[in-house]
Specification:
Layout (H helix, E strand, L loop, with lengths): L2 H16 L7 E2 L1 H8 L3 H13 L4 E2 L5 E2 L5 H25 L2 H18 L7 H19 L2 H10 L2 H9 L3 H19 L3 H23 L1
Antiparallel strand pairs: 1-3, 2-3
């Protein structure tokens, strides 16, 4: 994407995750362009990328809206993500580089700072750090097929909503999972990495389920 398209992508994505664009509501290209302060051309490219990531959806008449997830949809997303993340972590434990392990530690440090914010946990920072952490693991797994599947399964809307319900203790537990994963990668322990990734996602699913009531 061009720089303008990347800017549009970031602004529209932030608007979706913040709830600025409610689920199920149709949004025109002009509305997105107004939010971004950009022309429709880069906005159109950003929309296409967000549709591919399932953060936006197109209707049969090609209108764009934020998807509405049912409870059953969300349960299936978590189940599929647990399976894919487990496989991803096991591959990463075998293939990860020393440089990528250093990157994971840096992302963990970033998340620690977000959790320890004196004004209360920085949810956006926590989510962003979490996204970068898991992106490194996905890159370390070295599988284009897996990357494509993960793009469709990992809904950042659900991730963000889950994090919003996390108490500081939940975030700290998530961080312990992350640190344990780093140790599993350092020792190249595929079985341990697989088990940790599964528990990590199942724990998030439990928080999200409790949030729904």
């Amino acid at each position: 994407m061009s720089k303008a398209s990347q800017e549009a992508y970031r602004k529209i994505r932030a608007g979706i995750l913040s709830g600025h664009f409610p689920a199920g509501q149709f949004v025109t290209e002009d509305e997105f362009a107004q939010l971004c302060g950009l022309s429709r051309t880069p906005v159109r490219e950003a929309i296409a990328e967000l549709v591919s990531e399932m953060l936006l959806q197109r209707s049969d008449t090609n209108r764009v809206f934020v998807p509405v997830w049912s409870d059953e949809d969300e349960e299936e997303l978590f189940s599929l993500r647990a399976m894919l993340e487990s496989h991803c972590a096991a591959r990463a434990a075998r293939l990860i580089s020393d440089e990528q392990i250093i990157q994971l530690r840096a992302h963990c440090d970033f998340i620690d700072r977000a959790i320890a914010d004196t004004d209360g946990p920085d949810v956006s920072g926590f989510v962003e750090g979490n996204r970068h952490f898991h992106a490194v693991i996905l890159a370390a797994a070295q599988s284009e097929r897996l990357a494509q599947l993960m793009k469709f399964v990992v809904s950042q809307i659900v991730v963000h909503r889950t994090a919003e319900q996390y108490a500081r203790a939940d975030m700290e537990q998530s961080q312990r999972d992350h640190r344990d994963l780093v140790r599993a990668f350092e020792t190249r322990d595929e079985d341990w990495a697989r088990a940790l990734a599964n528990t990590h996602i199942r724990r998030a699913a439990s928080v999200y389920r409790a949030m729904r009531g």
